[in-house]
Every structure is written in structure tokens, then in C-alpha cells.
Amino acid sequence: MKKILKIIFSRLFYVGMAIVLQVTALVWMMVFLGEKFKVLSFLMTAVALLMVLWLVNKRINPSYKLAWTILILSLPVFGAVIYFVFGESRIAKNMQIQLARQAMRTRGLLQENKGVRNHLEEEDLRISNHSRYIRDYAGFPVCEGTTAEYFPIGEELFASLVEELHKAEHFIFMEYFIIDQGEMWNTVLKILEEKAKQGVDVRLVYDDMGCVNTLPPQFYKSLQKRGIKCAAFNPFRPIMSVILNNRDHRKITVIDGHTGFTGGINLADEYINRKKRFGHWKDTGVRLRGEAVASFTVMFIEMWNVITRMEDDAAAYMPHVWHPEPFEGDGFCQPYGDTPLDEEVVGENVYLNMISLAKRYLYIFTPYLIIDNEMMTALCLAAKNGVDVRIVTPGIPDKKMVFLLTQSYYEQLLDAGVRIYEYVPGFLHAKSFVCDDETAVVGTINMDYRSLYLHFECGVWMYRTKAVMQVKEDVIKTMAKSREITKEFCLGRPLPVRTLQSILRLFAPLL
After folding, report:
1. Considering 30, 52, 87, which residue would you say is the last residue of a domain?
2. 276/360 same-domain check
3. Would residue 477 show up in a list of annotated catalytic residues for this protein?
4. Which top EC class applies here (predicted)?
5. Which of 87, 110, 136 delimits the end of a domain?
């Protein structure tokens, strides 16, 4: 009963109900008018067909096209309305223009060092070409002069984060999908308040949809009163909006331009196992120190300027402004961001490139395994070519329907020789790839349609850094705590479950 009451009195419930009522009213009006005026009914059907033709010719994922086509053709009026409200994988035109303008102003700060590129090419031309793709299509350079430290659990990253926040002298930039009241956030908030009083430039961006159940409306105003500059990305309002589907899923902290954090860990107690929700919460992250942190600073400033309508100059926050001495180096690091603004699915293509370059092994952490045909083909082909491909998913899900959908992909992967594990102690929220003792990616990007096509995301690509082997060691230890999935498990599922999974697969791009 307490859970039901909590849901009923939550902000998400009221906003969700308002949107449902608006959609219902609009559909009813169109159906009513269509029945009364046959010409209008014909026109609505014609519009639905034209919409499908337009959708089929768009440069988007075929699975995404198929799901929407089925919905629109099955229920023309309802499907058309829902697509206009939720289906577009681009955010509002004004925000798109503003972000493009900010990128024009800031990306000149991220000029790649030619010596670094030449060094990487000498190490391995194929690896350099992978890195070149990130530079050319995401706009972020590869760097030396950076050290990377991997954290195999949220508690360890949190301890390091607190330590680094205390050291801040000039500025702190934080951008997170979820913030929730509790020990983790209260600890961070106390430090942020102290630093703001000391004159440190403290700024925070949070995603209002991600925090719809954890923070009150206009939470940013309460922080502004405490001296913390704060802004909400894409505020969640009780109106139909084409931008509801696009969220800021990034997790970034930048301190004084030279120290940065990212990974799957939000500012909430379950991420550090202070609150138990789905057994033991397994998450990962990485800390960078050095030149590569500039990329995270630029990501933050671009988003900050768009949300707040300010024109801050990112040049004032570059690493060497506050740290003139040379940075130590540890291999190659390349932070990168991905947006729903363009037709380039950088997050997915970085993963696909890693899969195609794998020679001996590829190990993957992902909380959701909801993949398109391109990803399925790449994983299966790598395994068929003799690469040891292993994927670790949660043992205890956070969303049961999504977990059923994840498990529906197991059988085809197993048939190709991919090995799959489920983390027995609880929920695995990490998003990490590691390959051949050479490359690794740690970031915020799930292997599902939302992360790959609809959200703002970020990650760090690393080559021959200490962190690469730390990721591998963590995966091996985690697999020892996991159960390996067999073909018998897939075939032994009850028929109703398999039927439900088949239906869910059909609409996977919309979930």
C-alpha cells in the first residue's frame, strides 16, 4: 500500500497522467471527427501512409523504422499522434541550433596534437583509424599526457570523488542523469556548498526526467540559493512534447580542468550500496587526470550554455590554464560524447569498431542487451571468427520486462559461440568493453536503443593505459561471481514467456 501511495502522489504520476489525457483527448477528437466526416477519415489514413513512406526513407535504424511502421499502420490515428509526440529521435529544433552553435565556438579548443596521432599510428594503424573515427565524427581528440584510473565498484569511485572535490580550488562542473537524497548526494552537496562559499565556481546540471521521482520540481532554485549554479536539462512538464524522449544520460565531473570522472555511477545511494534495491549494485567508472579532461569540460560548457542561455568561454577552463606543468602520461585516452542531434550513432559505432578489431577476446559489461541487427551480426561474426566474446548482464533486474527482452537475445548469441553470464549477487549497471589487453571503453552508454539513438551520452576510449588491464581483471572476477547461461536455459522457458519476449522484440526500439 505504501508503494502504491508513493506512486500516486509522485510527480511522475501526475505528469504522466496529464500527458496520457492529452494524447487520449487528441486521438478521440481525431477519431470522432473522422467518423463524422468521412473525407477527414480518409485524409488521416492518407497522412499515416505518407508518414510511413517518409519514415522508411529516413536514415535511421531499420528496427526503429519497423516498430513505428507496424504501430502506425495498425492504428493510424493513434500511431501517428504517438510518433509525433515521442517518435522523433531529434530534440527540439531550437536546442539543436543552439548546441550546433556552441560546438562551433568550442571545438576549436580541442585541436589534436599531430605528434600524438603519429605516435598512435606507429603503435598500430588499425587502432589509430578507430581513434580517428572518434575524432572526425564526434569531434574529440586522442591525448597522451593523461593518466586513467578504473574503479570496479561505486564505493571506490565515490571515495575518490569526495577526495578530489575537497581539493578543488577554481571550479567544479557536474552533470548527472540521477540525483537522489541520501548519504552520497548529501556528502557531495555539503562539499559543493563549502567550495561555493570559498569562491570556487560550482555548477551542476541534472536531467529533470531522470530525477522526476527523486527531486522536487525546480530543485535547481534551491541550490542556487545556496550559492551553487544549477540548471535542469529538458524540464519534465505535463504537456505533450517531442523532446520528452531525449535525455541527458551523461555522468561527468570536472575539477579544475585537469581531473575528470565518468562511468555508470549516478549520485544516489544504490550506486554505492548504501541502499539495497536489486541485490548488490555493481557499477564501474574511471578517473582521468591530464589533457584529455578538456573534452569533458567542453561537453559540459556546451550543455551549460544552451540550458542557461549564457556564453561562457570554455577556453578559460582548459587544463593548462590552472595546471601549467606537464601532465604525466599513461597510454592514450580519448573521451567522447554522443548526441541524438545528428545521424551519426557514435556510441554504437565505437562499440562496433571494437568488436571488428578484436583478435583474441572481447569482454562486455552491460545492464541491458537490446541490440539491433548490426550489433547482433558483429558479435556473432566475431565469435564465429574465433574471438572469445563474453557478455555479463544483471542477475537481478531493475526492470523485469526489459530483462525479459534482454534474455530474448541470448539464444542467437549462444548459437554463434558468444558466452553470456548473469551477475548472481544483484544488478550490474556497468557499461564497459575491454579487448585484447589493448583497448577499453568505460562510460554511460548502454547496449540499448535509448542510449545508442535517443540520449546524450559519453565515454572514454583507452589504448594501452593501466586502466585497460584493470577492466579486464574486474570482468574476470565478476564472471567468477556469475552464472553462465546455457542453451538449455533459453529452450526451457515456458511458452507464454517466449511469446511475450517475441512481442517485446518487435517493439524493442520503442521501449
Report:
1. 87
2. no
3. no
4. transferase
5. 87
Domain span at residue 52 reads 2-87
Beta strands in 92-168 (DSSP E): 146-151
CATH number of the domain that residue 275 is part of: 3.30.870.10
Indicate whether 80 and 98 sit together in one domain: no
pLDDT confidence of 89, banded at 50, 70, 90? very low
Q: How many domains does the chain have?
A: 3
> Is 431 tagged catalytic?
yes
Residues 177 and 236 in one domain: yes
Q: Which of 256, 312, 338, 372 is catalytic?
A: 256
Query: Locate cell 513512406: which residue?
Result: 53
Residue type for position 149: E
DSSP string, 144-206: SSEEEEEESSHHHHHHHHHHHHHH-SSEEEEEES-B-SSHHHHHHHHHHHHHHHTT-EEEEEE
Per the annotation, the verdict on 166 as an active-site residue is no
pLDDT score for 296: 97
139: left (phi over 0), alpha (psi -120 to 50) or beta: left
Choice among 258, 282, 323, 429 that is catalytic? 429
Whether residue 202 is found in the same domain as residue 242: yes
Q: Which of 436, 448, 472, 474 is catalytic?
A: 436
Name the pLDDT band for 355 (thresholds 50, 70, 90): very high
> Residue 7, SS3?
helix
Is 256 among the residues known to form the active site? yes
Q: Which is catalytic among the residues 251, 282, 323, 455?
A: 251
- Residue range 4-23, pLDDT digits in tens: 555 455 555 555 665 566 55
pTM, entire model: 0.88
Catalytic residue among 130, 282, 431, 472: 431
pLDDT band at 3 (very low <50, low <70, confident <90, very high): low
Residue 124 forms part of a structural domain: yes
SS3 at position 431: coil
Q: What is the DSSP letter of 109?
A: G
Q: How confident is the model at residue 218 (pLDDT cuts 50, 70, 90)?
A: confident
Q: What is the mean pLDDT of residues 56-65?
A: 72
323 classed as catalytic: no
**Whether 417 and 312 share a structural domain:** no
Residues 304 and 409 in one domain: no
Q: Is residue 341, in this structure, part of any structural domain at all?
A: no
Claim to verify: residue 197 and residue 242 sit in the same structural domain: yes
Among 130, 195, 229, 249, the one annotated catalytic: 249
Q: How far apart are CA 468 and CA 474, in angstroms?
A: 10
Q: Specify whether 43 is located in the same domain as 158.
A: no
CA 209 to chain centre: 14
